[in-house]
Amino acid sequence: MSKTDEQKTQGVVYLVGSGPGDPGLLTLKAAEKIASADVIVYDYLAGHNFVERAKPDAELLYVGKSGKRHTVEQFDINQLLVSKAREGKNVVRLKGGDPYVFGRGGEEAEELAEAGITFEVIPGITSAIAAPAYAGIPVTHRDHASSVTFVTGHEDPNKEESAIDWSVLARTAGTLVFLMGVKNIGKISSELISNGMAARTPAALVRWGTTPSQVCVASDLANIASECRQRGLSAPAVLIVGSVVSLRDRLSWYESKPLFGKRIVVTRSKEQSRKMADKIGDNGGEAILFPTIEITAPSDYGPLDRTIARITDFDWVLFTSENGVDHFFKHFFDLGKDVRQLAGPKFGAIGPVTAKAIRSRGIKVDMLAKEFVAEGILEFFESENLRGQRFLIPRAEKARDILPEGLIRKGAIVEVVPVYRTVRPSGPNIDAIKKSLEDKSIDAVTFTSSSTVTHFMEMFSGARIKDLLDGVLLASIGPVTSDTLVRNGYRASVEAEEYTVDGLIRALVDHYRSGKNTA
Question: Which burial class, exposed, middle or buried, applies to 444 when counting CB atoms under 10 A from its CB (0-12, 13-18, 19+)?
Fold first, then answer.
């Protein structure tokens, strides 16, 4: 086999910068490569928020390093990238920051080049600028610093002598940013002071920057080490030295977000969790994805096939969820149909999200319930004579019968057809969530349907669930879900006024803004 043929059989390695923590810092190209990768080799600081974007069959390999704890040595990481690419797989080497800024990406790229492996570099946002920015500290400023210097706080221990010229750093008029320097913070401050930098120079340490666990200690160069020791701060952290630190009091923005520091469990299906997780992140919280339901095909497509074949017989098609819309139309189009065959019936929806899903198929929504539950549709038809009118309700296999029974009482002819099922998923890490609940490191659990409640309780059957949920805020998307919580012996401390994901997020924000930090 020629070298050219051999290269054709190889995969590509993408050295991807993920940003230091906040998923919002992920570039579109990085997100695309993560979502399509066959293999993801990821670091300690490239956390679950990024890896969760992987496709279901992707191979996930953790090679994280934390202090002296190396899961995999660098030499072995280099060889792993080469071997996986030679298997013909596309590999994402996921870094918590930028691959070429103290990320050892340059060493990995050299190894790949030597082995003849095709690679690309997708730059990320280094914590050297992201962590200060999230702490309200601009690393450059017209009135304070016209330059910034990035310095490693942890050099290769095998070096015979330091490559850092402390005398030059001490004389700089710009900002100094030290990465990986929390262990040596005392040495850093003393070296700068002994080489002429003023002891009163503002300094700040930002730990877990850009994440809801972010902590910032601002002081001066002489005292920053002792204050960090008193607070018990450890890696990962970034040290900033310079007058720009004095701007933090005015420019701090992230830590004032309403959900900052809150760890919130999302129990929706994995496919639907991302939007909610992003909204939690936008408000400063950390979303913990724990899907308690999986949306799957109905047990039998026969009833739906027969219904679609005579769709023009119906006067109304009523959708009670976005899932119902998605699964109905997917199967409708899979059968080779098109929207022109839906010219007969009118369409109704519970809630704006469901209505939007209908409109996205090019279909007018003739009825939107004022209240986003089945009772809202019945209220719409309260004064209508429905005798002889034919209604189709495509929905989950198991659902409340209030809507069809209410329409039948008014004389309507109603057909309910299952278009999807909600089942318990087999994948979620119950032990990890259980440990977090035991450690009291989870602030809230959100429920977006009765199924999420039922399955959550089933997953923890046998555990001391009362103790696990003690002090944890339970948030419900609406009264039906809240009633299911009550039937299981719990009360929703937060209930959305508008029964949508946006409404649930607003309810959480309002709860914490009001100063109610507990359940």
Answer: buried
Please state the length of the chain: 519
Give dist(CA 296, CA 314) in Å, integer: 26
pLDDT over threshold 60, residue 4? no
How far is the C-alpha of 88 from the C-alpha of 38, rounded, in Å? 9
Confidence band (pLDDT; 50, 70, 90) for 160?
Answer: low
Domains and CATH numbers, the chain: 12-124 (3.40.1010.10), 129-256 (3.30.950.10), 263-293+425-513 (3.40.50.10090), 297-423 (3.40.50.10090)
User: Which entry of 65, 89, 346, 410 is annotated as an active-site residue?
Assistant: 65
Q: Give the residue-averaged pLDDT of 350-358.
A: 90
Note whether 111 and 78 are within 8 A (CB): yes
Region of 388 please: left (phi>0), alpha (psi -120 to 50) or beta.
left
Separation of CA 168 from chain center: 42
Q: What is the pLDDT of residues 357-386, one digit of tens each?
A: 999 999 999 988 877 777 788 888 888 888
Q: Which of 317, 297, 301, 313 is nearest to 393 (CA)?
A: 317
Retrieve residue 91's tokens.
Answer: 């590999």
Neighbours of 466 (CB within 10 A): 9
Report the alpha-carbon distance of residue 338 to residue 318 in Å, rounded: 18
State the greatest distance between any 2 C-alpha atoms of the chain, in Å, as a whole number.
92
From the candidates 84, 180, 276, 443, which is the catalytic residue?
Answer: 180
| Predicted confidence band of residue 12 (pLDDT cuts 50, 70, 90) | very high
Amino acid in the structure at residue 242: G
Q: Which amino acid is at 98?
A: D
Secondary structure letter of residue 299 according to DSSP: S
pLDDT digits (tens, 9 = 90+) for 393-436: 999 888 888 888 999 998 999 999 999 998 888 766 788 899 99
State the average pLDDT over residues 141-153.
93
Count other Cβ atoms within 10 Å, centred on residue 184. Answer: 17
Q: How would residue 98 be classed by pLDDT, with cut points 50, 70 and 90?
A: very high
Q: Catalytic site residue 197?
A: no
Tokens 């920015």 map to which residue? 133
Cα of 147 vs its chain's centroid, Å: 34
Report the pLDDT value the prediction gives residue 271, as an integer from 0 to 100: 81
Which residue, among 508, 506, 503, 500, has the nearest Cα to 353 in the 3D structure?
500
180 as an active site residue: the answer is yes
Q: Note if the pTM is more than 0.85.
A: no
Which is catalytic among the residues 43, 98, 326, 443? 43
